[in-house]
């Protein structure tokens, strides 16, 4: 039973890291080349930066499920 729980937790971390990596890639990919230059990365660095960000967050255990948006306002904050 303990092995299954450990496997489940590991799989959750892997998927959470993948989701975070994709979010970072989407966010950085939506920036202009000038905006990317302002923060010190080039378009070719986006995949590396996203992988590193996800690895750091998963290792720190900081990856958590994002709050569900409020349907009435579209905001994650309660009204």
What is this structure's SSE topology?
Blueprint: H1 2-29, H2 33-38, H3 46-60
Question: How would you describe this structure to a colleague?
Answer:
The chain is mostly helical and 79 residues long. The protein has one domain (2-60). The protein contains three helices and no strands. It has helices spanning 2-29, 33-38, 46-60. The longest helix is centred in the N-terminal third of the chain and has 28 residues, at 2-29.
Features:
elongated, mainly alpha, 0% strand, 79 residues
Global Rg: 16 Å
Beta fraction: under 5%
Model regions low in confidence, pLDDT < 50 over at least 5 residues: none
Number of strands: 0
Brief summary of the model shown:
62% of the residues lie in helices and 0% in strands.
